[in-house]
Design brief:
Shape: extended
Order of helices and strands: HHEEHHHEE
Helix content: 40-55%
Strand content: 5-15%
Largest sheet: 2 strands, antiparallel
Strand order of the largest sheet: 1-2
Structural class: mainly alpha
Radius of gyration: 22 Å
Number of helices: 5
């Protein structure tokens, strides 16, 4: 019993240390200037510098960053945080879309967010184009996930 309590204390200290390190890293990341179009940093830009007609992608990125609609989440590449303005817009779109789908009589379904490698292999012909967007989850907490 005492050994379990010591293990629990040790695990708790380790978890606290990891949480503090993650919080420190997130705070540091939040202070980092993120590149916008053309290698410029968001704090270096007073207005929108990209032309919508010439480079729509850079223009759009500047607009959503300067409008504080999104914030990049640097912990994981490709992830971002939808800020309140974006969430409002998303909520309006979602409600409109849901009403349209409901009016057509479409029934909702929910698919699993995580699939095993075996399941994915069975569907490899359908998944091929999505390979760059896949994230392989190999660990849950401290346990390794079996590769099935």
């Amino acid at each position: 019993m005492a050994e379990t309590a010591e293990t629990s204390k040790s695990a708790l200290k380790k978890a606290e240390k990891q949480a503090k390190m993650a919080a420190d890293k997130a705070a540091k990341t939040a202070k980092t200037n993120l590149p916008v179009g053309g290698g410029k940093k968001t704090d270096d830009i007073i207005g929108i510098t990209s032309s919508k007609e010439a480079d729509f992608s850079s223009w759009y990125q500047e607009v959503v960053l300067k409008a504080e609609m999104i914030e990049y989440y640097n912990e994981i590449s490709g992830f971002f945080i939808l800020r309140p303005r974006s969430m409002f817009i998303w909520d309006v779109i979602r409600k409109w879309f849901t009403a349209k789908i409901d009016s057509l009589g479409v029934e909702e379904v929910s698919f699993p967010m995580f699939l095993s490698k075996t399941s994915l292999e069975r569907e490899k012909d359908h998944v091929e184009g999505f390979a760059p967007e896949l994230a392989w989850v190999t660990k849950a907490s401290v346990s390794q996930i079996p590769n099935k």
